[in-house]
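Journal club side-thread
Mid-discussion, someone asked how the predicted structure for our own chain would compare to the paper's figures. Pasting it here so we can look after the session.
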Amino acid sequence: MTKPMVAVLVHAADARACVAGASVGYAVRHHASVHELLATLDEMHVALVVIDAIDAFGHSMASAAATIRHSFPTVPILAYCTLSASASSAVLDIAHAGVTSLVFRGVDDAGYAMRAAIRSSCQRSITERVYAAVAIHLPATAHPLLRYAISRAADDPSVEDAARGLGVDRKTLFNWVRGWSDLGPREFINWTRLVIAMGMLEDPRRTAEHVALELGFASGTAFRNMLQRYVGASCSEIRNTGGYGRLLSLFASRLGTDSHGDREHPNPIPGQKMRHGAWSRQA
């Protein structure tokens, strides 16, 4: 299976090495110009673009980022930034150009932090859409679990993992979820992963194998088998008949709620039991 690609346009050798070292599970292609980068985007499936906030001459790369965002709206962009007085305006410009996320040289561009930034950026554009689309079908007290399921989608968390992350025991979590849906916690997490996957498959260059790898499935076959079990249709059938929208509607129908995300659940997890963490931030 061909690995998904990280397309890189950064000028410093140590920065290129940092991106390459952190791109575990991805193929990395470096580029010398915006023209080369756009050609790669035209020709190949690209999971993520990593681009400097300023080029080797100190010029803002915001216009290049805006061009990529306009021409390839499903491709996430990670901007590599420098913390300095001279570069501060360029960071603001490239953020306004529509990049997905920022990473700062010497702050969060090494080791695990850089790997996490790459993985998060690869999924962030679709996960933001999934959060907004699913949250309206849930009571506000259920949003922490949705955030958890989205933020941990690529890790395939267990129900025990989810319970620990939310600061409750497994039985409490099960009873809580059953109070506002027809699903158990395991099914809720799996449905969330499947909806994210179908959103990623809106990009015609992405294959089921690419998405399976990015979302932590054992294989493309494992992803397709889960989709068949939950939906009763193959990946290609779903993709050709509404794709993301169809799967989102099916998920919403299993939640057993109308579109009023501010409704209160009668037995919410008490606020003092909710631990702060990645799940508590909007994905």
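Post-session note: Residues 258-283 have pLDDT under 50 and may be disordered.
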